[in-house]
Amino acid sequence: MSAEDIYVKQLLTSRKIMDLLDQYPNLKRIRCPYSLYKRTSPKYLEVLNELGVEVKPIKKRGRPRKYSDEQRNLVNKLLKEGKSPHQISGQIDIPLKTVYYLKKGIELKKGRKYKYDPKLRMEIKKMATKGYTAKEISQKFKVPLRTVYYILKK
Q: Where are the domains of the chain?
């Protein structure tokens, strides 16, 4: 920045403006954070404009993003391919919590996956309605007896 273009972190008061004009006689532009620009009196902005000094707010706010859109798209692509967040975390070397943060609009399946596929579960339920005992079903499909009761309960 030259003496014609300065950055200010403090609110532009009449005293501050006078000090700046004394310190920088060739002043053309004052840049400040957007939050300060909003709080600066419109009269002060008008007077500075008449003097040929432009007050310009800087729109960029907040901390810069740590992960690029490229990485966000990669996470979403891998999730659509069916990879788990834990696998993605290990593959592209970012924290698991960040993978959950970066997923954009993709619903993840909640809860544990069933050990037995839905076809087998339906077959067990059909056999039970036909009158087979839980023990017979358990022996036929080589599924623990307790699991058969659990499937029938649901």
A: 5-58, 69-102, 118-153
